[in-house]
Design brief:
By secondary structure, the protein is an alpha+beta fold. The chain has helices spanning about 15-25, 45-55, 115, 180-205, and strands spanning about 5-10, 25-35, 40-45, 60-65, 70-80, 85-95, 100-110, 120-125, 130-135, 140-145, 155, 165-170, 175-180. It contains four helices and 13 strands.
Length: about 210
């Protein structure tokens, strides 16, 4: 994905009235929390912001150009209108390019498991993992190909091929994807049904 760059302006005014005024002008109020912890109030072009936010993840580092200076940052929170879906406010968190950070990276599962064609049921319980690395090494997302996954097989976090400089923080035993044998579940359900019916019959006799 190409680098996402936002042009922003610093603002001194705060409050809901000023925020509404900015939105009427086609600007979106935002705050960038700096590395020192001090927030910087900014505003951005609404159309540019909406277009730039499409397709990025929580681990995507964007560049914000403010008063002639570039800042690398994460999009930490986006507030939207619950009716229209329009952006109301954005929080950014600045990162230091020379400092190791921790972040959650989304998993993108691709492929049609061979085990499903053989009668299995596919499950993907894990949607992201936590890693540690320099900002330049941080992946936007990690692709997991499940095409060769057969019945009673699974893919764990430890099986992922992470890029150089990326250290895994999440537990390696966590299951990302698996294919279970559907007939085993059906058999278990069939065995439970007569027992449940018998219990119901006994309750009915006791009440009568």
């Amino acid at each position: 994905m190409s680098e996402v760059v936002f042009e922003a302006k610093t603002r001194t005014g705060r409050g809901s009235a000023i925020a509404r005024g900015l939105r009427r002008q086609g600007r979106i109020p935002a705050v960038m929390y700096g590395r020192s912890g001090q927030p910087v109030a900014i505003d951005l072009d609404a159309a540019e912001l909406a277009g730039g936010l499409k397709g990025i993840s929580e681990s995507t580092i964007v560049k914000i150009h403010i008063d002639g200076k570039n800042h690398d940052a994460f999009v930490k929170d986006t507030q939207r209108n619950i009716v229209s879906g329009g952006i109301l406010h954005v929080d950014f968190y600045e990162v230091d390019s020379a400092q190791i950070l921790r972040a959650r990276v989304p998993l993108h599962v691709t492929g049609n498991p061979v085990g499903v064609r053989n009668g299995g049921i596919f499950e993907s319980p894990l949607h992201d993992i936590e890693v540690e690395c320099l900002p330049k090494d941080l992946p936007e997302r990690i692709h997991v190909d499940v095409s060769t996954l057969d019945v009673n097989q699974s893919i764990h976090v430890r099986d992922l091929a992470l890029g150089e400089g990326v250290r895994l923080i999440s537990g390696g035993d966590q299951v990302i994807a698996l294919v279970k044998f559907a007939r085993a579940e059906e058999a278990a359900a069939t065995e439970e049904t007569p027992a449940a019916e018998g219990a119901d019959a006994k309750k009915a006799e006791a009440k009568s």
